[in-house]
Structure formats: C-alpha cells, structure tokens
Amino acid sequence: MVESARSMKQSGLAKELQPGPNLILTAVASVIVSLGIWWFLLKGISIWFLQRLAYVPLLLLIGASSGPPLELNPQTGGWDFHVRMNYNTTNPQTGKPIHIDSIDFTADPKLADAFTGALFTYAGLALAVGVYSKTQWKRILRGFGLQLALSVLAIALFAYTKALAIVVNGHTGSTAVLSAVSLCEYLITLVVPYASPFAVVVMVLPQWKNYFAFHVARTNKLHR
To answer: Considering the entire predicted model, what is its pTM?
Structure first.
C-alpha cells in the first residue's frame, strides 16, 4: 500500500515536470497578455519599482557624488544616470592631463521599457507552464529574483559603458576602444533584456528545460 502510494506520487511528480503539448503556443499567448497588462496598466509603476530596487546596488557599483545613481527624468520619461568614473585622461585641446570624477547623462526612455518589459516577459513564460504547486511557485519566484538581478546588473553595466563611451568620444578619440564600448552597449541594451527571460525560465523551470531537451534529442535522432 505504502509502495503503491509512493509510486503514484512519483508518477504525479514526473507528469508535473513534463511540458504540455502546446507549451510554445500557450507561452506566446501568455507573454502577449502579460506584456499587455504591463503596457496598459503597470508600465509607470513597474519602471518606478525597478528604479527603486536598483537604487542601492547602483549606488554601490557606480554611484557618484554628483547626484543619485539613477532617477526618473520627468520631462523625457527616461532615466538620469550619475556615474562614478575616476578616469584620468588628457584634454584634446590643451594636451594637459585632466581627471574625470563622474559623467551625467539621460538614457533613452526605451531602456526603461526594455528592462521592465523583460520582467513581464519572464512572468508570461513562467506562468505558461500551467503548473502552480507550492514547489513550482518557489521556482517561479526564484527565477523572478534572478531576472531582476540580471536586469539591475545589466543597467549598471550599461550606465558605465555609456559613460565610458562619452569619455572616449570626447577626450581620447580612440576608434578601437569606442567600437568595443559601443558593442558592449549594444549587447547590454538589445540582447540581455530580450534573451534573458528565455534563459532564466530554462534554468529554473524543469518543464521548459525538458521541452528543449526533448526537441534537441528528437532533432539529433532524426539526423542520425
């Protein structure tokens, strides 16, 4: 009897970890709904929420004496950054050495949209699985925390690379360095916000991991 109950429990657990047959279609619909809720109802408060959560980490990583590391610009809707540089360079006009303590700039409002939208993309992908057990909720929340941490780290990296690009462009004029910095900025702003939600759900949710593992194994089998 005990053995039968244990077998049934293991069978139920194994079934829970398997992806549904229409996971991709469900995920597309779920992400559309999630992003729709964000865009029409929660966009403003989610940008404020991410800004508040990112404040202390950014203060420790890039905080400058010229102002708070991150604040909302009421005129543009974008984020104002004050980035600590501590950078020694030369004045291109006089040739004299100068010290740049910090750089201040305003980011495009699309940056805030990209990173807050990534949180809702993750939520849509995670909820698309359709399993809402206590263990599954722990996985979903763990993934949300990971997605949030990645977003904060990416914002800090963006702020520093953008500030470095301003310094290089205005003082050193090194084409190679400017190209490298621009590439980093591109990867941070156009790859991380859109790719990270998919990477996170595969890392933390076994249903997504099993879905891709099944299709990879099936593809390999067909090519043999």
So the answer is: 0.86
